[in-house]
Amino acid sequence: KSLSRSSVRSRMSLKSPKAYNSLQKGAVIWDPKPLQVKKIFEALKKGLNEYLEAHQAELDYLSDRHKDTKRNSRLAFYYDLDKQIRSVERYIRKLEFHISKVEELYEAYCIQCRLRDGAANMKHAFSLSPSTKASRESLVELYKNFQECTEDMCFIEGALEVHLGEFHLKMKGLVGFARLCPGDQYEVFVRLGRQKWRLKGKIETDDSQTWDEEEKIFIPNLHEKFEIKVTELRGLATILVGVVTCDSINFFTTKPQAIIVDITELGTIKLQLEVLW
Question: Which pTM value belongs to this model?
Fold first, then answer.
């Protein structure tokens, strides 16, 4: 009870409820996913540390140049470097705070998860014992504790999602060798939870491809995977080429990630995207 619902939420600086309105009080379904949250947390922390290391290396490089420039007394360049160093230092402090906030949220999440498991185990033990007034009262209290921990976990999941950043997707085109012919038209539909991206493309006579959109920003989601659907447009008819799902865990990294997914079962048509976190 030391980490009751009110105390957990008072320690979390949650953003506007609109950011995760499905987690509002009174929502019908409360279904936390501890294993998935653990995987996302580990990938997120690893990616944030990569950014921190890269900026620390940049700061070290700029600091060395700063010392050399000071000795050579090139004042204009010296002050410009000083400005860059201050900017990198501010970003590093921001990253360090971001990492500490994510760790704090996950620690609170793990505590609530353990309390919830304990309440579930005790509830199961009481249900096997002979029914008495005391045992029924205990079951009611345990059920209440279980529900509160479940609710807290869902609220923390919503708070953690606010810290996941953005995925910038860039369309690179279809790869299909003999399957792609000049004049063919395709529609690609990408979904991540409630976020959608629908774009149409055409194979030109020189085998190049033109698409009506090339970039889209998606907000990462703890539980949803990318769903990619490709259809071929033939006049008024549409032919389904394939539907695939793609996990986003590997996208939490400093370097752009090239994604090549098999749209057809035999891999005769592939879709190529680039993801930058």
Answer: 0.80
